[in-house]
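Dear support,

Our group has been running a series of protein-ligand predictions, and this particular one with magnesium ion is the one our PI (initials K.S.) wants archived with full inputs and outputs. We had some confusion internally about which version of the output was final, so please treat the block below as the authoritative record. The input we submitted was:
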Amino acid sequence: MRGRVETRSLTTDFSKDDLLAAATGETDEFDVEDATAPSTGDMELAERAALRRVAGLSTELADVTEVEYRQLRLERVVLVGVWTEGSAQESEASLAELARLAETAGSEVLEGLVQRRDRPDPATYIGSGKVRELFDVVLSTGADTVICDGELSPGQLRQLEDKLKVKVIDRTALILDIFAQHARSREGKAQVELAQLQYLMPRLRGWGEALSRQAGGRAGGAGGGVGTRGPGETKLETDRRRIRARVSKLRKEIQAMGKVRETKRGRRVANEVPSVAIAGYTNAGKSSLLNAITGAGVLVEDALFATLDATTRRATTSDGLDYTLTDTVGFVRHLPHQLVEAFRSTLEEVAEADLLVHVVDGSDPMPEWQVKAVREVLVEIGERIGTTMPKELVVVNKIDATGELAMARLRHLLPNAEFVSAKTGAGIDELRERIAKEIPGPDHEIDVLLPFARGELIAKVHSQGVVLDEEHTDEGTRMRARVHADLAGALAGFSTNGSH
Ligand SMILES: Nc1nc2c(ncn2[C@@H]2O[C@H](COP(=O)(O)OP(=O)(O)OP(=O)(O)O)[C@@H](O)[C@H]2O)c(=O)[nH]1
Ligand SMILES: [Mg+2]
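Confirmed final output from the archive:
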């Protein structure tokens, strides 16, 4: 169990009025005095590099000690989004999802604001008038963090923090933060850290400036001249070097761990064990489905991104054919590209599977939206890895919690999907049958007489092939079966062809 992750119902209501209010409200230019005030505090680079919480990336409140800061960080948040395209319903859903992400990261959502704009403001993400409104909301709610529903440029982050006087983080940093909290395996942790450092790199400038100011200030106090940028610059350079060194070390580590997995996968391929990868939106019930199909005890939690490590389990079709089922990290709209890159070796499992089971949460208000997001991420993975994606089997899960109307709509939208409930077991047998049909089966028919001494070959035919007929004779076991080319070749010497 992880202590921090606790899901609460949304504390935010997005009424039409809210959205309308959010969509208007361009007012005059707004300037907060003393925009240079926030300093970075005394956090060590080492600690930043470890990056347990991405929230502390840039500005901290100027006047709190580190201990207080820790308790403050990401606790009480205001969400803000820019709604550029799509329906009002979609923008609400997007912010509601951001709220769930924020709660998964352990924060309390106080308020959500959306602004309708053609595109985000290049300087401050939301319009300057909106910044003032947001500042009021931050003050009146006592929020300590603002989370923006997009990836902000380093400049946007800095300007917003200057104006709002609280921490500002974006969707990418939030997702990275959740991943950092949930990573368990050595590989997972390394992958997340790599993604975080890659996110951090281009943002080092702003941070570096703060460090530079800080160092300059100290130097000034000690009698150094005003405008001596030396110490800060030097520190920034050192920081950059250290981060770069860490990045390349992590890359090497991850690559080495990927190799181990490749070897394992290679062994499966050599045995011609078909592989099925389970992918889908976060919290759709992928791990539950793996458990339902194979009886494996994979962690299931009502939290986003509960699973970060690919778990592979063996399963058997009713024909006795073995295959592997792999549970993977959940997807979300705009999965940070740093994560796709860092999790490349994990995602390769998905790309190289024989069949992709795409799990959709039928009880979600907009399941088709999940489907779209997942397919987008799949395309991105395919592009990055340079392969085409395997055949997709859509599985609508949680039908026990899906209304009749929604079911009818889904059956219409996804005519080839399987409908199941990992919770009640409804449809699971049918799904097993369907998987058996969709995975590539052995296509070489053999008729062999295997001596009793070759029990291992008999076992192989059973696990890798489909046995059509089996008879125990005085000379050995006569088997008619369908097997893969390799095994057919290995058994050629035992063929009974023509002898009966
Ligand atoms: N009602 C209902 N709830 C389900 C069903 N399957 C899964 N759940 C619940 O959905 C939540 C998420 O399930 P998981 O199996 O952890 O989902 P996941 O897709 O692996 O999630 P991540 O690993 O976080 O991406 C849990 O609270 C499950 O109990 C189902 O068929 N019906
Ligand atoms: Mg899971």
